Amino acid sequence: MTDIAVRVESLSKQYRIGARQAGYRTIRETMTDLATAPLRRLRRLGQPSPENETIWALKDVSFDVKKGEVVGIIGRNGAGKTTLLKILCRITEPTEGHAEIQGRVGSLLEVGTGFHPELTGRENIYLNGAILGMKRGEIDARFDQIVAFSEIEKFLDTPVKRYSSGMYVRLAFAVAAHLEPEILLVDEVLAVGDASFQKKCLGKMGDVAREGRTVLFVSHNLGAVEALCSTCMVLTEGHAEEFQSAREAIRTYLGGRASDGVAQLRTGDFAGPLKNVIEFYSVEVMGRDNGPQGVLSPSEPIRMRAEFKVHEPVLGFRTTFSVFARQVRLLSLHDSRVGKTLYPGHYAAMVEIPAYFLRPGEYSIALGGYRDGMVDYIWGTDLLHFQVAETWDEYNDAMNIGLVNVPRSGYGRTFTGSRGKTQE
Length: 424
Hints:
Helices cover 25% and strands 34% of the residues. By secondary structure, the protein is α+β, with helices and mostly antiparallel strands. It is extended, with a radius of gyration of 28 Å.
């Protein structure tokens, strides 16, 4: 029996944009159009004919997911993440390519997906179970767990159209996680819930992973992706990068701006009267691993280190590091040299930002220095970018996710793009 839960080969999805479908027309409108058609054709002579613009939401995406893996999918808005999950759920058909699903699929793509607004919460639980192919007795056995997890027992017999978005997602996640699909597809819906509910959901997803079920997790919460996922895929404008570890994928996603936490500097990066006296040649940012890192956790102190060369004696030179966010300076830190003379040679300066001082986001480093009591200085901006990502290290330790491949019974299905061969 194959250990592949999801297989995608050359999957593509094309959408047409800017085209509006014509509505129904009366007989009178049709007759009027017939009479004026020759005049319209004369006006259009010599004019370029408008064409419907198309975009590829996904283009030639291929990957395999083994049973029991928890795979993260990250990318910017519009990269094709939700489109990919909708194809795997058979909500939409691919334009080209081929995909295979081995097992029963549960999905949580957006608030209210799969719920009938006129039915109550209780009725929707049974409806979703029936869609997953479960018998009433199986749903009854898990009903109390679903209600307890969702914490909406008071509103269980209220039509879900009267639920808030938070209540919707509570019930939807509880149903998706407790009705035991072999494959769970989760899109960025946990952002709707409050902090305690997100913590509960991430813990439940950890339990699902330990049980050997397969999870595809789409999220902009890079910390949750790093804590939960064994591997990760980056989507960029519909194109997929190869699977990487979660940390490596996050660095790929952040691109060259986060880089690997170190930058080689040139004289041209700096300005000021001391430009020919002080020569900075490298700067790096480090976390708890004591090595250059482009992505750091808020829970770890952040150290910035610069190396430079002094070409002639300089009295009272102090190195200054400044941290910027969106071109606004947040803080500046200086090394501890006060009143000392730096003689020709190589030097290093390091400062430290305490843990939990910077909130999650992207930052840049400016570097330079000045002589005490003088206007002589050297300064360079936008030298190195780094990212503080929201990480949930306590989840990583508490859940201790050990992924195992556990064969599970189920059924398989195959579907392809409309331009290729279709199998069922």
